[in-house]
């Protein structure tokens, strides 16, 4: 996908304040049995097509509204991902501004997760 220059500038600016982890780092956390909230911030239709196995869905459009209900502990570890790692950076920045101190964005998003062959949940209707 080709992104507009203003959007890319915003993402690059925000990346200065947001911690990112690679898909392999996130998978290593899962393999170690590390407990964290794994949140997909993509649109509903994207999540319905497929998503990282075990991830919960809180779309970018509602995450700020609903996060305190879903994850009231602002110290809880949270990993966010989207399609390519841009929206999750923006969402991580918003959560940090809301007081969440242990949030990371998964660099490359589900695109790189798929390329790595890591587990996905695919509803039977999307297969």
Structural notes for this entry:
The chain has 127 residues and is of the alpha/beta class. It has a single domain (5-119), classed as Rhodanese-like domain (Oxidized Rhodanese, domain 1). Helix content is 41%, strand content 17%. It has helices at residues 5-15, 23-31, 44-49, 63-70, 87-97, 109-115; strands at residues 19-21, 37-40, 51-52, 56-57, 78-81, 103-106, 120-121. The strands form 2 sheets. The protein has a 5-stranded parallel β-sheet. α5 (87-97) links the parallel β5 and β6. α1 packs across α5. The longest helix is centred in the N-terminal third of the chain and has 11 residues, at 5-15. It is globular and about 35 Å long.
> Quick one: CATH class?
Alpha Beta
Mean pLDDT metric? 94
Give helix and strand order, one letter per element, not per position. HEHEHEEHEHEHE
Shape-level CATH architecture: 3-Layer(aba) Sandwich
> CATH topology, which one?
Oxidized Rhodanese, domain 1
Number of strands: 7
Helix content: 40-55%
How many domain regions?
1
Rg, please?
14 Å
- Strand fraction equals 15-25%
pLDDT below 50 for ≥5 consecutive residues: which ranges? Answer: none
What features would you highlight for this structure?
single chain; 127 residues; Oxidized Rhodanese, domain 1; two-stranded antiparallel ribbon; 6 helices; 7 strands; 17% strand; globular
């Amino acid at each position: 996908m080709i992104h507009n220059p203003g959007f890319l500038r915003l993402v690059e600016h925000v990346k200065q304040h947001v911690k990112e982890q690679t898909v392999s780092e996130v998978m290593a956390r899962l393999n170690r049995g590390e407990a964290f909230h794994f949140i997909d911030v993509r649109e509903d239709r994207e999540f319905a097509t497929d998503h990282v196995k075990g991830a919960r869905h809180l779309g970018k459009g509602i995450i700020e509204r609903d996060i305190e209900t879903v994850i009231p502990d602002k110290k809880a570890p949270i990993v966010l991902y989207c399609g390519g790692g841009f929206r999750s950076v923006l969402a991580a920045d918003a959560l940090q501004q809301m007081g969440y101190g242990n949030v990371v964005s998964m660099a490359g998003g589900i695109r790189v997760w798929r390329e790595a062959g890591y587990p996905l949940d695919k509803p039977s209707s999307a297969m």
